[in-house]
Design brief:
Length: about 425
């Protein structure tokens, strides 16, 4: 345990406390409050519909910014002192993101009924929610563009403050809408909250007025797009495939078992998201930068097993506590109507353990830009999750959805171990120890 706290204090918390912890904690609290309001005022049926809308928005928002966020942050930080390259980067990303988001907004607006039937089925008519989302989508893209620029310029304090204010504003508006309008309010709140973060854009421009003059349509560069394209593809595959699979599985649950069952499964995935947020943040802050610096197999092996020995025991203890207190958690996070969720914790937690074990090693794909390996493995994961979940739902009902999640990530982990077996378990010669 002492080793764990030394690891956290020395490597992670200094960065995380300054950049991410306040925002992360607020996100978790906001998510819990919104889930509680949905449970009280809407119930399992509403939870299922909200889940589908969230997944759909996640896909469209990722496409709107073309998976550019992380690539822009990295590129801006590299060229911020080179006026010519900075102008090319900002101009290319801005206009590419602007035109793609506007085009996507028009598609959504004029196909709102078709999209409604896809994500809500013809039994519900929330076309106006899709139309509202289409209107605010370009604002979301603009916000993310400004956010990535400020991040690239290391304006972390401003980002943190703006993000916290945006989170609070979005939370209050969403809770008020749920209280007044029930399911319509919940769906509308989810859609308009990203647009409320327009403060990010305004403040970003205020602190970097000189950047506005750098954005010129004549400075669009295909070279910049080509440089960012691998990150774009990786980000899009990861951000699009999983939400689509979740929508398909949720709709299958609705058709085969009922909308309440889909709501129970959505509630379980929400709980999973809450406790995984912290560990995802730790890995993004520490593992990815650390792996980028590693150039030998021996260092890679040491880093992976160090994480397993220090972080994983604490993660396992946390998950054990969550599992043992699942009945209490349902009372706190949801309502008595969600009692069936209690039977889903076991397989969900086992799958999340395999997921975290896999992610630690899989970050090597990103750090070393192993794009083809990453995409093939991600696609495999989503295909296996779809087929295993559908098959197991047919045999075991609602529990089959979390069983599919568990099976998919254990298979994913097994394949990753095979791919990196020589680095993790092989005998390292002096020559092999120095290979990437």
């Amino acid at each position: 345990m002492k080793k764990f706290f030394n690891y956290i204090n020395n490597e992670v918390l200094i960065k995380a406390a300054n950049l991410n912890m306040a925002n992360l904690s607020l996100r978790i609290v906001a998510g819990i409050l919104i889930s509680k309001f949905i449970a009280i005022y809407i119930g399992p049926q509403g939870m299922a519909l909200v889940g589908n809308l969230r997944n759909f928005l996640s896909v469209l928002q990722s496409i709107a910014i073309s998976g550019l966020y992380k690539g822009v942050v990295r590129t801006v930080s590299q060229v911020k002192d080179n006026a010519i390259e900075l102008t090319k980067t900002l101009s290319t990303v801005f206009y590419f993101g602007f035109f793609s988001s506007v085009f996507l907004a028009f598609l959504c607006y004029y196909n709102a009924e078709f999209i409604n039937d896809l994500i809500f089925s013809s039994n519900y008519n929330y076309s106006y929610i899709i139309e509202t989302f289409a209107i605010v989508l370009p604002f979301y893209a603009l916000n993310m563009f400004a956010f990535s620029i400020m991040n690239g310029f290391s304006k972390h304090k401003y980002l943190l403050l703006i993000n916290i204010l945006g989170q609070i504003l979005g939370l209050l508006v969403t809770l008020l809408l749920i209280y007044q309008e029930n399911i319509d309010g919940a769906l509308l709140g989810i859609v308009i909250t990203p647009a409320l973060n327009l403060l990010i854009t305004i403040v970003g421009i205020a602190f970097r007025k000189s950047l506005i003059s750098s954005i010129k349509i004549t400075q669009i560069s295909l070279e910049v797009l080509n440089k960012l394209s691998p990150n774009m593809i990786m980000a899009l595959v990861s951000a699009i495939a999983m939400p689509i699979v979740m929508i398909i599985i949720r709709n299958y649950l609705i058709d085969e078992i009922g909308i309440k069952a889909a709501g129970y499964w959505t509630a379980m995935t929400r709980v999973s998201d809450y406790y995984l947020m912290f560990f995802n943040s730790l890995m993004a802050l520490y593992i990815l930068p650390r792996f980028s610096e590693i150039n030998t197999k021996s260092a890679f092996r040491k880093e992976v097993f160090s994480f397993y020995k220090t972080i994983m025991p604490v993660f396992l203890v946390l998950l054990l506590i969550i599992y043992l207190s699942r009945s209490l958690l349902i009372n706190v996070l949801f309502t008595e109507d969600f009692r069936p969720v209690e039977n889903l914790f076991g397989y969900q937690i086992l799958g999340d353990i395999a997921r975290v074990l896999s992610m630690v090693i899989a970050y090597q794909f990103l750090a070393k830009k192993m794009f083809t390996h990453f995409i093939i493995l991600e696609v495999f994961l989503f295909i296996i999750m779809y087929f295993s979940s559908i098959y197991l739902i047919d045999d075991f009902g609602l529990k089959g959805a979390v069983m599919g999640h568990c099976l998919s990530y254990f298979m994913y982990f097994g394949i990753i171990l095979l791919l990196f077996s020589s680095s993790l378990f092989g005998v390292l010669t002096e020559e092999g120890a120095n290979d990437n």
